[in-house]
Amino acid sequence: MPNHSSLDLMFAALADGSRRTIVDRLSRGPATVKELAAPLTMSLPAVLQHLRVLEDSGLIRSEKSGRVRTCRLQPAALQQAERWIADRRSGWEHRLDRLETFLNTEGDPS
Amino acid sequence: MPNHSSLDLMFAALADGSRRTIVDRLSRGPATVKELAAPLTMSLPAVLQHLRVLEDSGLIRSEKSGRVRTCRLQPAALQQAERWIADRRSGWEHRLDRLETFLNTEGDPS
Predict the structure, then answer these.
(1) Which residues of chain A have a CB within 8 Å of the CB of B84?
(2) B89/A78 Cβ within 8 A
(3) pTM surpassing 0.90?
(4) Which H/E stretch holds residue B72?
(5) Among the four residues A63, A107, A110, B16, which has the most C-beta atoms within 10 Å?
């Protein structure tokens, strides 16, 4: 179970279109900073700042080899955020199922 | 497909422990503002501000009847946020599957 602050950081990291563009690209495989910056219309320092927010949240990791920094998605972290939402949604759906069962039972003349 | 700004608002809304406590409570059924405020150690105006952020994001709706405001989760909105993450995670997993297939084929002496 992720603690509160790691979910804070992960959801905050995902609350930005440029950072989601980076995550989307990384879902297709590792990429260098240069490759990640290409589709974004912003300065390199701005890209690096977004990468830092993503890395601090645990959603990505990066590794430097020589002058090239390569970033990778951390699917386990992504799954924590996904699961938090999924658990709440399924809680709601189970409640609707129980309500339906209750109403069907009430309507049953037997 | 949700637009960029609605995902911005939904993920930003989820990036706060108090707001997640509210969503968690609402996943078990509708609740009044008073019920939602009970477990939170903050002033009523602070709770109302959190509810406004959640409502602006589309994750919850509220309705006033007399003096009582009741809030409900909007599971379709929650599902949009969940699906965005799930699609990126599954993109990554499919890539790993393809890599495994490739490596198995390469290792096959036939």
Answers:
(1) 14, 20
(2) yes
(3) no
(4) strand B68-73
(5) B16
Q: What six digits make up the tokens of B59? A: 């994750």
Q: Which of A23, A29, A87 sits opposite B95 (nearest CB)?
A: A29
Question: Is B98 at the interface with chain A, CB within 8 A?
Answer: no
Check pLDDT > 50 for residue A1. Answer: no
Among B46, B41, B59, B53, CA closest to B2 = B59
pLDDT tens readout for residues A74-110: 999 999 999 999 999 987 777 777 777 877 887 665 5
Q: Which residues of A touch B89 (CB under 8 A)?
A: 27, 75, 78-79, 82
**One-letter-per-residue 3-state SS of A33-72:** HHHHHCCCCCCHHHHHHHHHHHHHHCCEEEEEECCEEEEE
